[in-house]
Amino acid sequence: MTSSPRPGSSFSRSRFTRRNMLLATPVVLGTGALAACSSGGSEGSGSSGSDGGVATGGGATGGTLTIYTTGEEMSFDPATSQSLAITSLGLTARRLTAWKTSPDAPTELIPDLATDTGTPSEDGKTWTFTLQEGLKFEDGTPITAAAVKYGLERSFAPELTGGLTYHKVLLEGGEDYAGPFSGEHLDSIEAVDDLTLVLHLNRPYGDFGWVASNPAFAPVPEDSGQPETYATQPVTSGPYRVESYSPGAQAVLVRNEHWDAGTDQARAGGPDTIEFALAQDASVVAQSIIADRSDAQDSFLASFVPTAQLVQARNDPKVGDRLVTSGPGALEYLVLNTESEALKDVNIRKALQYAVDKEAYRTAKGGEISGDFATTLITPGIAGREEYNLYAEAPTGDAEEARRLLAEAGAQDLSLRLVIRDDQTAAAESIQQALTRVGISVTIQPLDANAYQSEVTAGDGSAYDMVLSAWQPDMPSPNANLTPLFESTQIGNGNYNLARYANEEVDAALLEASSTLDADEAAAKWAAVDKRIMEDSPVVPLIYSKNSFIHGSGVENFVIGQFPAYPNYLTTTLKA
Questions:
Q1: Res 105: pLDDT
Q2: How much of the chain exceeds pLDDT 70, in percent?
């Protein structure tokens, strides 16, 4: 199914994405999903040779880094990828812009293929990017503005589905464009000359520099072959090229000799070879890395450390700083269906803000290491976030205030349906017990992934009163936190406004904030709309989750930044 956003809508999602899967399963970063961290962007170095030189960040060049993933397949096609700018696809595909991550500061937007992060026109509807001179694909041919244009155009093709869609609803004419394979081109993507790309939007958009870091902004040569083969036979622009790929077994990346480290601020290019070991058992791999076996020393596990191994690693002094836990990241929250007869009254929804015991929820998730208590919708590590708390001061809630609000609303014998995924039972029971103490009966209904997609994201809202969910933004912008979850156009049709929240005032405020070019002015507007949404109580923020990863003793520069809460593949290196 596809969503049909109004012109100017910020998002269009027709997919079952990683953000809402965070509560269900560990994210498999090796398949191009999430990641984030680093000791910072890379300036120069990263020699193509294996002479033991020094890569950016202090690690040595050379060696083979193994990344263990639970996923069985990988795709290297930027048109179909949802990969964040610092994960697997970033090793092979550069974009117009990139991210510099740090544990000590919000993630910074930096140039990648371009000389800067984009220059908007005065009205914010036209963005110009100038490419660096001398950039080359793996085969030695020049990377041009026309190649970036073609890469963007490919992302519109119905043959290539699943990628991020921010640019598709922003570029003029994008709603009627079906890709370049029939010979048609999109005039709003203008390759003025070999180095100049001009993008014409249908409205002002202050965060377009961030959008330009998405996978679709990677260059693709127009003679790159059939679309169905590009996923495994890409023409790469990053420090690595694909040497071999066997689904269910392994993908091997080796050096792209035409990558120039001096043009790349985002990538260290340290290891000579990066091997993705596919279809791995996370528990087995974690055990090997905890033991620091010789065959696991130059490796890391892409997915979260399973609970049993996490406890083991925390108690093993030999592991030490090889176990890396992020700061607060994705927002985990309780969805309150505003269209449900039981929850239409805002005072009833506010009562739930006081009734929920966030401490009990966090305990069910594994305790303090699983996250920090949440009160806002914009997540930590994103510039412009303001801390506030409209409801219960204590994370255990305020049962007395919840009962008072319920009584004022005349809510008696309230019975609610809580829909969850199969493995969320313990967390759901913590919600159930907290609501029971204020007189609300909760029925927990587990669903498998297919049923969840059908009844929750693509349904009409009749299947649930509440849902346990989570959201990891695609980029460090408040827009990516708020618009997909709370704009009214994002209700149903596979989108993620699961609260089915519709407020014309909020829609207008979201549009105004996203159209504001001045960063400080935009930040103030985002903070205001965050609080305005919470006044209507469409969700109960629970925790900002923390993620734990583990690596072998031969791995260096494996650091998790403020956003996102995942390791930066592009700056990870090996010891000399």
A1: 85
A2: 90
